[in-house]
Amino acid sequence: QVQLAESGGALVQAGDSLKLACTFSERTRNIGWFRQAPGKEREFVVSIGWDGETYYADAVKGRFTTSRDNAKSTVWLQMNNLETEDTATYFCAGDLTWRRGNPDAKYWGQGTQVTVSL
Fold first, then answer.
1. Which tens digits make up the pLDDT trace of 44-99?
2. Contact 4, 74 (CB under 8 A)
């Protein structure tokens, strides 16, 4: 069972930057970030393959960047120019697959809260 752990969530102001980290216990095909705001469905944010290939959701392109260091078993999510709409619980996930264009994952972390205030 792959273990994933997120860290770095915080309360920030609009326009600020924040960097989340996800540590993983074993290699997976890819690692992804999802987010879920209160009362809303879970939303895909970005994925990064073991080789570093990335895929971003349109909502975060140009503001969010993901990277990884396999030697440190860590994936990062750099979030810049945060907006109040980015407020959500952010989840790290492993072994993403896409069915009919919808991503899902086999392994999930517990989530870390990001709150963006005006």
1. 999 999 999 999 999 999 999 999 999 999 999 999 999 999 999 999 999 999 99
2. no
